[in-house]
Amino acid sequence: MEQNVVYVERKDNIGIIYLNQPKKKNAISAEMMDLIADFLHELEQDDAVRVIILRGAGECFCVGGDLDQPGPKPITSEFSRKSLRRYTRAVRAIRDTSKPVIAMAGGYAVGGAVSLMLACDLVCVSEDAKIIPNFCKIGLVPELGIMATLPAVVGPQRAKEILFMGERMTGADLTRLGLANRVFPAAELEAGTMAFAEQIAALPTLSLKITKGIMNSITDGTLSAVLDAESIGSPFCSQSEEFKAIAAKFAGG
Question: In order of start, what are the domains of the chain with their CATH numbers?
């Protein structure tokens, strides 16, 4: 049976959420983000699950937003705003679930995929991962809370440089910046991430849940404000002539 664009596996006490569009390098759609939020809620209610992993099917985490989604042509600001709110629902769900969520990122993580990764509690990456937060570079506002989660780790000045320039980073770069907890050779990423998750799953559940909740409460007020501001700023940028010119260039190959 063909699996959905997002699906869940359970391995012992670990729940694994897969982004499942490998032919599109797991480009994320609004439907996929709705499903991520729904599955996070489902796993939150499952007492047998102690840790959650978010990963891409195949060798790639995610190349960012799926450009081939249903919607009006041309895309309107109001449609973009409603769509973005569906995307941010998944980010809020990652933060709100009491269980540790680990991002497992190999291959590419581009644009919103970087934001999704940094919304997670812990990050495992491959050494050769290609991390590209290219929002400003293509004329868009950084989305999905990265303007809160990134400076919380690297500081505002470094975060601005990373987001302004949108340059490619590797797994080693993320580790150096404090953005990744574990970095593995590509062939060992899955096994290494599972071993890390098993270590965390063996720890006392209640103390982990309370610690996550308190630590997230320190920053999530800012995150919520950023997500709300994005819902105005991002659709506005998507209607700019600069962005339209860049988008047309990409569409033309």
Answer: 6-201 (3.90.226.10)
How far apart are alpha carbons 26 and 216 in whole angstroms?
A: 27
Q: What angle do CA 21, 23, 25 make, to 5 degrees?
A: 65
Q: Which three-class secondary structure state does DSSP give residue 140?
A: coil
Question: What is the reported pLDDT for 85?
Answer: 83
Q: What is the pTM of this model?
A: 0.92
d(CA 232, CA 1): 40
In eight-state DSSP terms, residue 222 is H
For 125, other C-beta atoms within 10 Å of its C-beta total: 31
Does residue 120 contact residue 94 with C-beta atoms inside 8 Å? yes
H/E element holding 104? strand 101-105
Which pLDDT value is given to residue 1?
35
The CA-to-CA distance between both ends of the chain, in Å, stands at 34
DSSP symbol at 16: E
CA dist 131 → 16, 71, 236 (Å)? 21, 28, 25
d(CA 104, CA 192): 10
Give dist(CA 64, CA 110) in Å, integer: 5
237: tokens are 């940028």
**Residue with structure tokens 């909740």?**
213
